[in-house]
Amino acid sequence: MWLAAVVCWSITLGVAAYFLSTRTARDIALGRLEELTQDEITIIGRQEQERDLSGSPVRRLLQAMFAPVGNALKRTSGIGRDVDARLVRAGLTGVLTAGEFVGIKAVAFLFFALVCAVGLPHFHAAGNRPVVLLLIALPLVGFVGPDLALNHLVRQRKRQIRKRLVDVLDLIVLCMEAGIGFEAAMARTAEKVSGPVGEELSQMLGEINHGKARAAAFRDMAARVQLPELSLLVAAVNQADRLGTGLAEALKAQANNIRERNIRVAREAAAKLSVKIVFPLVLCIFPALFIVILGPAMIAIQNSGGPF
User: Between 191 and 74, whose confidence is greater?
Assistant: First the structure.
């Protein structure tokens, strides 16, 4: 009886040792991915992007000069609360952190304040009022300028996404009608399309491959971009998933809606153009035209002894 028990335990331990020894790295990775939460997946992706750029000289300079100042300001004040979201919308995730951005603002403010403190007494004594006003405004420009540049990048990226979104949807629909699955069609489109749209698709597919639900990955992409057309597209795709309707038809309908919206926006911009051109026309073109047309006549009248 004891011999049978020993044999059974030996067989059990041998089988367990065999499965443990033959466990591949893929099985270990899949087991780890099942334990990850959605927030951990996002944090890991951001750390990977930062690690890719950590060896560059510019990155080391930013971390050494601006990050300590910016992180200290973020801890002690409310500066930079929305910087993370704006950096994501500008496509600068992994390129610039919120602490580094706030540090750039603070260092620029201090530098221009020092320039103002050094140059203001000299130019004020010389009576050069325009330069004095410029020096007074320099610290404000140094503090607000990075925010203006970041907002410009956000708007520019939104325009690029809006411009390419219809073409991307057409490519996805074309791939799906050729017999390719939805996620495979998005992957193929992300490989062919460059720019912000391709980056967002690649990031969304990476999150799906790391275990995030497709609906959640779509919602996160819409939250990152903050574009109404993309939000409507995500809502339509998620609704088609819940109802079990055809994704190709839903994408085709959304592409048509976005195309009509772009045409309407272009017509509205063209209608406003006639009003916007009045001021340059009156201030710049008409005076030069009057000088060219009436100038010779006025000179001729003056030379002939006229009233001028």
Answer: 191
